[in-house]
Amino acid sequence: MNTQPDATAAPDVRPVGIVGVGAAAPSLRLAAKEPAAAWGSGGGRGSVAVCDADEDTLTLAWRAATSAMEAAGVRAADVAGLWWGTSRPPFAEGPSHAFLSTALGCSAQVGGALCSGSPHAGMEALLGAWDAVASGHVALALVVCSDALLPGIGTAGEASTGAGALAVVLSGPGHNGAAAPARLVGRVTTAMAVVDRYRGDAEAATGDAYDGRLFREEVFLPLLARAGKALAKPAGWSVSDPDGKLGGALAKALGAPLVSTNAYAAVGDTGAAAALLGAGQALGQPGTLGIIGYGGGRATAVAVEVTRPVPGAENVAGALAGGQAVGYVAALRSRGQLVAQSDPIPMGVPPGSAAFVRGNLEMLALLGARCRACATVSTPPSIHPTCTGCGGSDLEIVSLARRGTVQTFVVNQTMPPPFQAPLPLVVVDLDDGARLMVQGTSADAAELAIGDTVVLGLRRYAVERGVPVYGYKAFRVAPATGDDAADSDVATMTSTRKVAP
Amino acid sequence: MSWNKVAVVGAGLIKMGELFDQSYEQMADGAYRAALANVDKGTPIIDAAIVATQRGSLWGQEGIGGNTVPSAIGLSGIPCTRVENACPSGSDAFRIGAMVVASGVHEVVLVIGVEKMRDKSTQEGLLARAAAGHPLYNRGETAPVLFAPFATRHMHEFGTTPEMLASVAVKNHHNGCLDPYAHFQSEITVEQVLASPLVCSPLRLLDCCPQTDGAAAVILTTAERAHEFTDKPVYVAGFGVATDHPYLHEKTTYVGLPATTAAAGRAYAMAGVGPNDIDMAEVHDCFTITEILDIEDLGFVEKGKGGPASLEGVTALDGRIPVNPSGGLLAKGHPIGATGIAQITECWWQLREEAGERQVAIGNGFALQHNVGGRGSGVSVVNILTRNR
């Protein structure tokens, strides 16, 4: 069916290194049989990951990127470019990239791009970062692929589409004076102008526009097979798998096993994140790896050489595991597809106001004002033109620690929407001596105690007047007494959740 | 030596409650008439008024200063200023009224507190405030969140128990049964408190004061003119105000309220007395834990001993230091701007030994009134009254 000529072989490329990887999955899991039963269709196997009401593609991207930088041992301030691929940026038009880079602690001058428009966006982000690093313009790049898909109610997509994120840190030659543990060594992109799944401007949920059999036989398999065959044959494949069955057929055609099965089983199809997320665990195994991402009529195949485990790969499976099982109604509420018929109570300062602009900047970047005279850190800076310790005015703006202990707390049981009770509110003594009061999470409400260790993670506080509002919450990672078992604080943010039997 | 430059010659309040049938203006008029009716002799000509209303800017009195009240009570034309200083708005208006009289500018001053808490639904009123303040930090702070962290920490450090907290509510509800102006007039038990729903752990429903509409008024004049209106004047012996960093994460302690300690210190010094000289106190018990913190911070009991003292009856009507004989905020109610004035009214009755069944023993002749508020404890006001000239 394709009439566009292909390039005969993968072009010569300049390899770049992968020096760290991080993954994230949302808090909830929906068994595929739940929506199937609700619509009387029966059946359904496995489960998909669903965002809680305070999670979205941005909070997942933040967590995966934070984990990847931690694994790579790089500071956000040293990242020269941030490439973010997601089919569902939190603002369809708006400051998505700036919110993420600010929350990650990147410099205001950070380069990069937001890639969107289809699930192929993840591969476009990877290629964009690769080109920038290979050209020498960017020494250290952060690539984040994330998605929190919203399937149409009653569509087959409800049984297969999930949410998750994967981030990698790319580096040119000579990062840390050592060869990278893995390298991107080959790539090819191929296109076919077809409409498959799509979403119009006014539509909230993604629809299935295509005939399944037509898509499989005439679009997906030939297009992705052509892209894959243009690469030197790898030992395993991670591929986009929109319905959970196409990946197996493609791997068979390409003659090597799938490595993306585990990630798909854990979180479902994660759209723009899917192909890279499926490869995350395999970055810990020396060998060759092929990654094929598809979306919007484009397929990109990338070859990876892993010479030794990429730091962070060992945490990928753990980051995707667990999650709280919820029913269909709870999932619909969390996805915002089931909304109570009541007037929303206006909360807080309108996102368009100057007060919000001031407060949002210091919240996303998690800033404090440190007194040069007495070392007290007053938070947040906008309400503290002078030091809360000594009254002095010689203050410097600092980035706050993301970890601390519980000084005191409450669990609020009487909250109007958009808050969800039980809601802990926690006074945290941060490891750098600053103190904050932030929300905790319902999952921790029963066990929270004075002296517990908590870490701060980005969450979506609310959607106000249509605008998503973000801020940090405290996540319990260790009890007041006992050993500190957490390897990666960020990775444990969902693992403390109880999985319903 | 007490300050004693100003005297209270009339005081009164309306029955507190969910006054759905009364407007802000009607409540104000009721309180003013009640205070006038309680003047023993003569008719005070009000020279000026100070109005305390805290939530008016949210509850339908937007941008209106003190001018609503003189018009409502038939005194249009007099000088009138509105005071808003969080939960101590009423007690601070009283302090400011006393200073106005002492300045010699006005000789007879009406201090009136009026608050409509129930003209908006809880969802749109107090709960919608859970995102107030900084646009992003401290979200989720409903009123109990401002005090419950102190209970968590007080329990952790001193072994204070839920039963000790409950004993405060039980006592104040008992006292409320003896106060015809109280919002709640029913006895409760410790078991009932502990079985009531959790509102904001560790605080339960009966650990919390209600949302109450109400109004209260006092009439102040100079000590020299006091006997024109009464043979039993009550004098302003002293007062103190102190601020603290308002946000919860800025506190230096979570087992006490430094603003209360500092305000009390100033008031005691001005009145020339100490905590042991006080016969009774009306203190800020918006939550049970607050009264326990108060009686420690005001010096009535040692820090950390507020819980056991409450359980053992130290603060009961016949205890060593009776606290909140009116029923307190927990039973009488907390119409914010009116609360402090209503407390002053109770102290006035107690010092004049006109409090009926809830009358406590008056020995030294001193009563103390206290509020704390402003994101919980950003400001505290303490007024000390005496019948001694």
Task: Provide a concise account of the structure shown.
The complex is a heterodimer of chains A (about 500) and B (about 400). With about 500 residues, chain A is of the alpha+beta class. Helix content of chain A is about 20%, strand content about 30%.
Total number of strands of chain B = 11
* Poorly predicted tracts of residues of chain A: 483-488, 494-501
Strand content of chain B: 15-25%
Overall form of chain A:
globular
Largest sheet composition of chain A? 9 strands, mixed
Computed over alpha carbons, the radius of gyration of chain A is 23 Å
* Secondary structural class of chain A: alpha+beta
What is the number of beta strands of chain A? 22
Name the chain pair with the biggest interface and residue counts per chain: A-B, 44 and 37 residues
Secondary-structure element sequence of chain B? EHEHEHEHHHEEEEHEHHHHEE
Describe the structure.
The complex is a heterodimer of chains A (501) and B (389). Chain A is α+β, with helices and mostly antiparallel strands and 501 residues long. The C terminus of chain A is likely disordered. Chain A has a 9-stranded mixed beta sheet, with helices on both faces. In chain A, strands 20-19-18-21-22 form a 5-stranded antiparallel beta sheet. Chain B is an alpha/beta fold and 389 residues long. A 9-stranded mixed beta sheet of chain B has the order 3-2-4-7-1-8-11-10-9. In chain B, strand 2, helix 2 and strand 3 form a beta-alpha-beta unit. In chain B, helix 3 packs across helix 11. The longest helix of chain B has 16 residues. Chain B is globular. The chains are: A alpha+beta (501), B alpha/beta (389).
Task: Spell out the key features of this protein.
heterodimer; A: 501 residues; alpha+beta; five-stranded antiparallel sheet; 11 helices; 22 strands; B: 389 residues; nine-stranded mixed sheet; two-stranded antiparallel sheet; 30% helix; 18% strand
Set out the fold topology.
The complex is a heterodimer of chains A (501) and B (389).
Chain A: E1 16-24, E2 28-31, H1 33-38, E3 47-50, H2 57-72, E4 81-85, H3 96-104, E5 111-115, H4 121-135, E6 140-148, E7 163-171, E8 182-191, E9 197-198, E10 207-208, H5 212-229, E11 236-239, H6 246-254, H7 261-267, H8 274-279, E12 287-295, E13 298-306, H9 316-320, E14 324-326, H10 328-334, H11 354-364, E15 367-371, E16 377-378, E17 395-399, E18 403-412, E19 423-430, E20 435-439, E21 453-464, E22 467-478
Parallel strand pairs in A: 2-14, 4-5, 4-6, 11-12
Antiparallel strand pairs in A: 1-7, 1-8, 2-3, 6-7, 8-13, 9-10, 12-13, 15-16, 15-17, 18-19, 18-21, 19-20, 21-22
Chain B: E1 6-13, H1 24-37, E2 48-52, H2 68-72, E3 80-83, H3 89-103, E4 108-115, H4 148-158, H5 162-177, H6 190-195, E5 198-201, E6 203-204, E7 214-222, E8 234-243, H7 258-271, E9 280-282, H8 288-297, H9 306-311, H10 328-331, H11 336-351, E10 366-373, E11 379-386
Parallel strand pairs in B: 2-3, 2-4, 9-10
Antiparallel strand pairs in B: 1-7, 1-8, 4-7, 5-6, 8-11, 10-11
